[in-house]
């Protein structure tokens, strides 16, 4: 997008901001802040409680995504100075269905992050590859050859090992509620990835033939997401729950942001990192190969894990970190198997028994980031970045 910037520099910024997405999101869940009702919870000081606000974080994510509309406007003015020459675009309502799925996916994933460590959460997001592959066969009529099926099986095996390590690991601060809580967190995270995969398929069906740039897709989904979240947060404030009397108390969220400099800083970091991550994703999609993008995604997961280990052992407070335990070896093995599965699926590596005609460019494009950031004449999303941290190449 900015040709004079070396591709490696853009990739490095994307790696850094992508990791910051996950770490700042998790840190908010672990940070105590004053409660609007003076309620105390979860080993916090008197009158404080953790910022367990996954849907409020969704609003920040959509705000970050919407910033790409400024990029769209700038690029249109540079490329099409005369307004009558500008290309036609899909009507705004076309972006509502994928935005709704984005909202559900990131919301469920955010709930799941409450119960598991950031590194496990990041690894479990790899399940989106499995769901996208299955849905592309069922809904788009694509063919999955034996090499793809083997790669998917490797990914499922790796995810199973990662999930098992989290359930068995009661030493981690994120697993302090026990194996059942970890299982709930993994379940919500996987449910979020199912929504994310459905979102990718929906974007493929609705927008592929319309040559819609990824920056416009992400930006418009951000606008729809903001509008939807304002309604959702208002409704959740009226639904009974344990967040100061509501399912998620919007007034309490604003109060915590106002009274806690740490929460406010983390929220701004989350917002900015999403904006920059999506912007870099468009450049990476055009200028780097699938090998580089696969490695970037793996490095992002490793960076998140290393950061959490560092927080635990270097700083006095272990609230933001994760210790190394005997079960961490199982998590590491699962992660490496997931990486192998991803490399196999995207034909970065091949096995001797895999035939050449097993390579399927169309199915690979749907899975690998080209990002649907969430989308372009190549699409990137994320954590999406999707939260999208979402990644897809479908356009």
TrEMBL record:
Q: List the Pfam families hit by this protein, alphabetically.
A: EamA (PF00892)
Q: Locate the EamA domain: which residues?
A: 54-163
Q: Report TM segments.
A: 55-74, 94-116, 122-140, 149-168, 180-201, 222-241, 261-285, 297-315, 327-345
Q: What is this protein called?
A: EamA domain-containing protein
Q: Which GO terms describe its cellular component?
A: membrane
Signal sequence, renumbered to the chain: 1-24
For this UniProt record, the keywords arranged alphabetically read as follows: Membrane, Signal, Transmembrane, Transmembrane helix
Which domain of life, per UniProt?
Eukaryota
